[in-house]
Predict the structure of Transcription termination factor MTEF18, mitochondrial-like.
Amino acid sequence: MGSFHIPQSQNPRLYTTERSVLSQRCYGEDGVRIPRATLKEAQTALLEYLHSTRSIQFVDAENMSKNSPHFLRKLLKKVEIVKDVRRSMSRFLRYHPINEFEPFFESLGLKPCEYTPLLPRDLMFLSDDCLLLENYRVLCEFGVERNKIGQIYKKAVQVFQHDFGVLLLKLQAYQKLGLSQSFMAKIIVYSPHVLTGDIDIKFIKVLEILNGLGFDYAWIKEHLSEKEFYNWSMIFRVFKFFREMGCSSELGGLISQHPRLLFEGSSGRVLSLIAFLLKFGLRMDRISSMFLQFPEIQVSHFVSNIIRFFLFFQEIEMEVDEIGKIVCSYPILLGSCTLKKTSSLLHDLNVGKKRLCKYIQENPQELSKWGMGTRVTPLPDSGEGVESQKLKTKFFLDLGYGENPNMLKKAFKVFRGRGGELQERFDIIVNAGLDQEDVSKMVRVSPQILNQSKALIQSKIDILVNELGFPLSSLILFPSYLSYTTQRVRLRLAMYNWLKDQGKAEPDLALSTIISWSDKIFLSQCVNNHPSGPQVWEDLKSEFTRDK
């Protein structure tokens, strides 16, 4: 067909405040400026190649050459320019066919990082994928912007796999339902899956509900985003939930004020929020009231804030029932505030977990003052510290540390916890069935055993007696047992019992020896006594790690 002249626009306007698209394209990825004339000549050469040599329709070839700057820059790096850029580029293309899908996808609005995974593995020429071109042209003729079609391909490649004539029939089917061509041209970009199967009934029902509430198609288009993925079935479910919650009369005002409730994340986050609150026992009418007071905040942020508070309550060891009361009573407060980290709050408030739980239960409104970016002041002294010191001193004296100030000072460093807590932990061991004097000796020998929660101490005693079959009196001889993890204890005894069954371990090895040996000594003295010992040891470790 020969070459032809591409007319140039006269006196293009360039702005100093914001670099134009054409100006942006004059810069390579490394920031080195590519002369505008060079880029123009390269575009012309690419257009001639695509249209004249590859027989791609002129409109498509022009769109590809003008809207694939990344591809052109990459191509220019490969071409040896001899005086005339256009001629040099044409000569290069004559002997070096390009992968036409690259400039094609880029011209559809996709970045290289987006379209690279979408490139066909065994194809280079667009003409080899006739269905892709056919469906692409149907969308163009329907009024979909070319630089938006890439998003359709990225979200729903099935749209471009329809047989000849099928896509047009699907578009016409929506038009017959009263949806305008301009409206559908936008919807296809935002929600291309409406074209992958039969007519999306839930999509039509959602539109009918919104129209019934007074929202026209222009309003719907305004509140949709290319960045979102719309699941119309899920959005329809949210409408059902709102009606079940008794929001029918206020639904129009609610959606008008907070369209994100419907369109952000296809309402998935709203459904997650409803499920979360229902799990804590919040009634449907209270959830309805919450949505009517919903703050000006993204739904995802609201949900994230509530979960952040929930995890905070767990970290400070608040009882589940108390967490539920706060979540049900103050959902708006929790969702509107982005809480600081737990460690930061404990430090800034200068408080322990137990007192913080109590303070929150008595003053839940204070939670709103602990958000990110706020200055948190320490809680006032409750006087509990002085009382705790007295209880600790009494506890140490009862243990037999005496009135010696140096011994008491060391005891305060060794034992962690309030005075009352230490006594409770001590009583757990006594109540298991040991004499108080024996437990006092145990604590003097291994004071660290009281630096654990009551539940953990009780659990370790239960494992020793009921699971491993040792007498409770074993603790008197080996109080440090309570300091070791349950995983270590179970692993060591499982290995020892296997070796004993194989006749490769001393039958009456002391519990303290089995548990307290270092891994290195345990391996050399026990595990390696059997040829299969190391493998059994590794298998047991994997098993106990998995169970943990």
User: Anything to note?
Assistant: The chain is about 60% helix and 0% strand. Residues 1-25 have pLDDT under 50 and may be disordered. The two ends are 74 Å apart (CA to CA).
